[in-house]
Every structure is written in structure tokens, then in C-alpha cells.
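Sharing a chain and its predicted structure for anyone who wants a worked example. Both blocks are below, sequence first, C-alpha cells second.
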Amino acid sequence: MSDSILDPIELVGYHGTNIESARRILQIGFLPSRNRYDWLGKGVYFWQDAPYRAWDWAREYSETKGGDPAVIRSLVRIRRVELMDLLDYSQDPNWANHLRRTHQYLQKQTSSILPPNKISIGYHALDRLVVDTLVEDILKPMNINILAVRACFQEGEEIYPGSAIYNKSHIQVAVRETSLISESMLLTEKDF
């Protein structure tokens, strides 16, 4: 097994949804989300290595949208140069600095107020705008293609008073290019 940072990496992702949507996805493929509240920009969202967190989300989703919960397990294969990896802060380029500069750019370029994040209700319009602007409007014209974004998401409640550990924290991956997704399989209640 090669250990070069130039080698593609493989991530196991879990996508929570309901059974009807899952069957449609397995037939025609994933469609990237374009919701304004998606914090890592447009893409297909996965919980990395977290099938039970995806299952919890699928149950919540199914309660509001209807149908039975389901999870799709997929393999995501990507070259590091095509991944905006917010977990590896010292990598070059330093994505945090680029995102900060993009936010500053947007503040200067717009005459209106930027959309706010409303974290308490899971609405991340500002984060989405900053990520999408960096990826699509700044990097892409320079022939730098970011095909996925990965970050840690702190969510839920402190596991005890004063803890920095939260009960629903996870790593999330937004895959912008669906050709990176393979080996998808359906998981239902019997699998959990």
C-alpha cells in the first residue's frame, strides 16, 4: 500500500434520507443539494464513518418528510488536490485563510448585508455563500477544481458541563462532483 500524500484517498460516507429517495438515488444517482442552509456549499452530503449519525438524521428527516428512514453507504474516492480539507489546517493551501479572505472580499463587493448564519436552527447561508464563492468564482477560473469539501461539525449538546465534546459532532463531506461516489448500497432499519 502506498502512503504518498499524492495518492487518492477513500472515504466511507453515509447519506441519510427516506426509503423512497434512497431508491431513486440508487437508480439515477445523487443530485447535489442546492439548499441555502448547507454549510459546505453545494454538494451531496455525507457523514464520514458515522452510519448511526446518518441513521438518526434519516429518522428525523422521515418524521418531517414522510416515509421510512434509510441510509446510503458510499465510497468517495478523491485526490487530495481536489479536496478542500478543513481538518488538515496546516496543508498548503491553508483553506481557513482563503475562506477568511473570501468573506472579506464579499463584504467589500456587496452593497447589501451578507446572509447570516442561524446556527441554532441549522441555517448556514453565510458559510455556503463563502465556500461556493471561493470554489466557483475564485478558484475555478484559475483552473483549481475543488470537487469536495470536508470539515468537522460541532453539533448537539455538551456531553457534560464545560465539555468541548458535543454529543452529535461529526465529520461531514460535501461532494460537489458525483462521479467521485461509487459502491453505494442501501441500509435500512434491519441494518441498525
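Comments welcome. The chain has a mean pLDDT of 92.
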